[in-house]
Design brief:
By secondary structure, this protein is an all-alpha fold. The protein has helices at 5-19, 29-40, 46-61, 77-83, 93-97, 105-122. The chain is built from 6 helices and no strands. α1 (5-19) runs antiparallel to α2 (29-40), α1 packs across α3 (46-61) and α2 (29-40) packs across α6 (105-122).
């Protein structure tokens, strides 16, 4: 299944934001807020964003935290389109297991709290 250019255009800011959880850097409160703001601008629900994290962003990005000297600045749009897009809309059993949940669970909880606050303010 090939991903449409419209889907990629819509998801790319989400992939960029969520991929920050897998950079070889420490995230601070301001980072969580910035990521939450980017996600809040997307048309996706919290559940859809969590699914995008688990099944699209996690599979290609988590390896960055398992190598000695990982990417720390950002992955880049081309890299994300090449490696994340093939996972778009797929729900593999392996990714569902999420063997390395420690890599993003605490981050997601903080981001989700900010995301809820942002979206509640808009109502």
């Amino acid at each position: 299944m090939s991903v449409s250019p419209e889907t990629i255009r819509e998801r790319l800011p989400v992939w960029n934001a969520l991929s920050e959880l897998f950079l070889d850097t420490g995230l601070q409160d301001d980072d969580y807020k910035r990521i939450a703001r980017a996600l809040a601008r997307s048309p996706y629900s919290e559940n859809e964003l969590r699914e995008i994290l688990r099944f699209e962003v996690y599979p290609p990005c988590h390896l960055n935290l398992l190598c000695g000297a990982g990417v720390w600045a950002r992955f880049g749009d081309d890299w994300l389109m090449e490696r994340v897009a093939p996972h778009c809309g797929k729900r593999t059993k392996f990714a569902g297991l999420v063997l390395h949940r420690w890599m993003f669970c605490e981050h997601w909880d903080k981001i989700q709290a900010y995301l809820r606050d942002i979206r509640n303010e808009r109502r």
